[in-house]
Write a structure and sequence with these properties.
Helix 5 links the parallel strand 9 and strand 10. The chain is about 30% helix and about 30% strand. The strands form 3 sheets. Strands 9, 10, 11, 12, 13, 14, 15, 16, 17 and 18 form a 10-stranded mixed β-sheet that branches. It is globular. With about 290 residues, it is an alpha+beta fold. It is built from 8 helices and 18 strands. Bound molecules: pyridoxal-5'-phosphate. Pyridoxal-5'-phosphate (PLP) binds next to helix 6 and strand 16.
Amino acid sequence: MRRTAAADGNAKEYIMPDIGFVNGRFMPLEEATVPVEDRGFQFGDGIYEVIRTYHGQPFELDAHLARLERSARAIELPLPWNLQQWAAYVHDGIKRGGHAESKVYLQLTRGAAPRDHVFPASTKPTAVMTVREMRTIEPALQASGVAVMTMDDWRWGRCDIKSVNLLPNVLARQTAKQAGAFEALFIRNGQLTEGSVSNVMVVKTGRLLTAPEGERILSGVTRTIVLELARKESLPVEERFVTRDELSHADEIFLTGTTVEVLPVIRVDGKPVGSGKPGPASLKLQTAFQRFVD
Ligand code: PLP
């Protein structure tokens, strides 16, 4: 539960509830619990999605739910409801929360069962949702750009599955934070894959380069939209891996993702990117993305 001062400056406070949801039932977030033997907790045996709203409407909900379905299929986890029902729950949760903008977290696990690596014979999946107020990234940061640092990509081989096993991402982001960097960029075998919470795009001599879809990256919903916008803006797009050397000679770099939107990168491992300021292509796509969501 979060208290918000009234927008008109009146001392009265409105109560904006954070919403919890477990297996089809809504409740206040602080009352939402799952059993200790849930396989999501025991094994990280589950998948998730993060969806945000713009103007109160879930952004690209169909694309997020399609990815939820793909992730579930990839780990042989049956969905408890069809996508229309998921969509209805998401809309309902947003309405119940009543936030100006919401961040919806969906998680589906293989359910609770006595601990054994093998799938349980008959366990119902656990579906969890939380709805909280969406805190957008600060406009000053969007305008100034951020510093990032590169790190070894020692994640597993199926980064296309939005699995709740986020330990490498957690450790990478923490290391970045401690070094004063906003994001960790993963490098695997000399090639840039993605960030710990974002996809990465590089601009070099008028071309937009980004890692191809496949098992090395999460196919970002924002990535897809931004690539479409780039093509509309007549910026040639190449979906291929960028080498570490190309990364260090990039004209521009930016991140894309639900939480970061289009975020220019101005330093990599302490060295300035291009002019050391957000470049023209990054700013153009940032504006195009803003217009798209508006
Ligand atoms: N890559 C990773 C590893 C992520 O965790 C995320 C977002 O959570 C993204 C990319 C961006 O995906 P999306 O644009 O769908 O938020």
